[in-house]
Write a structure and sequence with these properties.
Layout: H1 7-22, E1 36-39, E2 42-45, H2 57-70, H3 77-90, H4 92-95, H5 121-130, H6 139-142
Antiparallel strand pairs: 1-2
Length: 150
């Protein structure tokens, strides 16, 4: 749920997205082909945009800033503007234009403070780079050996 004190920021992102689409600066959201949705069980597979070389490092940096802006955090506004068409083309089909997510498919809401794989800037960047399989923390985080108890 968006906090009223920050509602202007979400509104600004939506207005910028609408203006960019109207002016032809951004394309209509299209489904990302590597994304697979299965409703039973509800899982979502997010592609690794960097790992699969779909986006470059600077584009992923800009998308990271965009996601931070959706969740009302301090961002680089120039990067947010650069990321708008990237987000629309690669993310909005699943996460929604305003980042609201979709509970039916298990797609996370990017506007709240709930983060499946961590909400720090580096963790968001890593998720965009590596992708996610919709079943919780990244596999390497889960498969680490259990600590030895004394």
């Amino acid at each position: 749920m968006v906090k009223p004190a920050h509602a202007w920021a979400v509104t600004a992102v939506i207005v910028l997205a609408a203006a960019a689409a109207t002016l032809g600066l951004a394309s209509r959201p299209q489904a990302v082909s590597p994304t697979s949705l299965r409703l039973s069980p509800r899982t979502v597979t997010m592609p690794g945009f960097g790992r699969e070389e779909m986006l470059g490092p600077s584009e992923i940096e800009d998308l990271t800033e965009y996601v931070l802006a959706l969740s009302m955090r301090s961002t680089d506004s120039a990067a947010v503007l650069r990321a708008l068409p990237l987000y629309e083309r690669n993310c909005a089909a699943c996460h929604g234009l305003a980042g609201e997510g979709d509970a039916m498919t298990g797609t996370p809401d990017l506007t709240d403070d709930v983060w499946v794989n961590g909400g720090a800037r580096e963790e968001i960047r890593d998720q965009i780079w590596r992708g996610a399989d919709g079943r919780g923390p990244r596999r390497q985080a889960r498969s680490s050996p259990a600590p030895h108890l004394p």
